[in-house]
Amino acid sequence: xxxxxxxxxxxxxxxxxxxxxxxxxxxxxxxxxxxxxxxxxxxxxxxxxxxxxxxxxxxxxxxxxxxxxxxxxxxxxxxxxxxxxxxxxxxxxxxxxxxxxxxxxxxxxxxxxxxxxxxxxxxxxxxxxxxxxxxxxxxxxxxxxxxxxxxxxxxxxxxxxxxxxxxxxxxxxxxxxxxxxxxxxxxxxxxxxxxxxxxxxxxxxxxxxxxxxxxxxxxxxxxxxxxxxxxxxxxxxxxxxxxxxxxxxxxxxxxxxxxxxxxxxxxxxxxxxxxxxxxxxxxxxxxxxxxxxxxxxxxxxxxxxxxxxxxxxxxxxxxxxxxxxxxxxxxxxxxxxxxxxxxxxxxxxxxxxxxxxxxxxxxxxxxxxxxxxxxxxxxxxxxxxxxxxxxxxxxxxxxxxxxxxxxxxxxxxxxxxxxxxxxxxxxxxxxxxxxxxxxxxxxxxxxxxxxxxxxxxxxxxxxxxxxxxxxxxxxxxxxxxxxxxxxxxxxxxxxxxxxxxxxxxxxxxxxxxxxxxxxxxxxxxxxxxxxxxxxxxxxxxxxxxxxxxxxxxxxxxxxxxxxxxxxxxxxxxxxxxxxxxxxxxxxxxxxxxxxxxxxxxxxxxxxxxxxxxxxxxxxxxxxxxxxxxxxxxxxxxxxxxxxxxxxxxxxxxxxxxxxxxxxxxxxxxxxxxxxxx
Length: 677
Hints:
single chain; 677 residues; alpha+beta; Hepatocyte Growth Factor; 5-stranded antiparallel β-sheet; 13 helices; Apple domain-containing protein; signal; Pan_app
């Protein structure tokens, strides 16, 4: 592994091999309420059918470029939507980048010293991903000088009103409210930032010392410190060249950088809970700052039985058909003899009551089709202690390596309280949008698994037995793929519930959900209503209930945001607990929920309202009283500080809402969910 001598030329080396993958604004360039899929009752999710609109899964950002460390393809597309659709069709894809047709000279990828490392032709569409574990690495550029339209995978259901959002590029900052060097610079943990123009690195033992070095040089915009605690191994930075070794930054090294090009900020970023870097930027830098989500953006948290994603380089979707259900327990079944050229892949669909399996659709890693057969749980869903389930999910999302053994131990006791809690936890998305159940399956199906697949089958069988006893439908699709991504004939398997689905149509979403529109201080709020197809913005506007709202100390908020955002997997629990506690703690937490933490794999960059809703309306929850109580606490807390807010809590049964209640300042009322209401 190369050492510190490469640090100064690090950015140039990264950019020389860069390919574009873009991020987009949260949501849909169409109408603001089209939040539900129509086909088969199965919502569009991370791995949903490619026919779905890409704006349900991807953001859209003008004057923005994002380049992942691994390129999937570079082709042409007639529009940004066409480019996003190409990304949406490949389960590995995390970013797309499109050069508009009207940029006749092509779009340049920014390089050092106000140059371009390369230029792509008008209409170029580049889709990319990051194959690293527990991190997101991307090259990002934004500003008027950047001609690209880009987007990134985001949490399904976070729809937009078609306006360009800055939220996916927000970097948490202190806003000049700190003291000393922190009056001028931000500080973010577990993050690496380096702009395209480098200054000489220096030694530093603390973040304050490193930021101070940047502060002393008026040219410096970004600082990054490899923490001394990293020890002899230093801090690893991936290369865009798949054949090259990563760069190791020595512990105690302070990297200083800037972008010398007018009207843009271009930088390389890595985020991940296990990174030993800390970083920040100068507050005067023309970089994104924390801001409430765009007004008029409805947010939906659906209790979807979604197909879980497979991280790049890990387990992209695979699937298969087993004529009969695999045994719920016991030894695994071999898919095919181990082959050094082939890889075992797996994906899963999990949700209350029943599911249909994901099947191979004939394209590379293309298990996006949904089988016509469906399978039902043998038992009814028991009462779940959702606090314990979410606490378990947060703990294991923060330590993915522990997910396999911890969940396996619980799944081996199907029908027990422990197993039921584990099944509920496995259905939850982590902050990086990877469902916890997928992390479990990776323990049985490691990266680039070239075995006979029997271990993956055994892990799936144990999960299925526990899920079936807990009232959950589960289908894990497993297959062996050749080097070109084609399914090896005869190697597919479905591990699913033993009981065929006998309901009308296919299984659809079941459980509690919620919709809301981002609040604005002192402005009227609107609830959402069902129009027969989707929840859309109501025409009725409601005021806050207080004439003199409480004030929140903004200096205290800055520190609070930094602490909350340092661990996105526990952020929702932290904020929900504070909202329930009332008083000053709830005031602070309520204001925090309108902010965005950063530019990550999570929806809109760790939107704190979304993370908070994950705790209040967990995926697959049937607990209506819990959802209503949480909604009242959140609405009351925002109302107290002058942000009128309305949440429409709804309950779904087999893909259709069966009731909904609006919770708003000073009251609540049911709203119709009948067709055409």
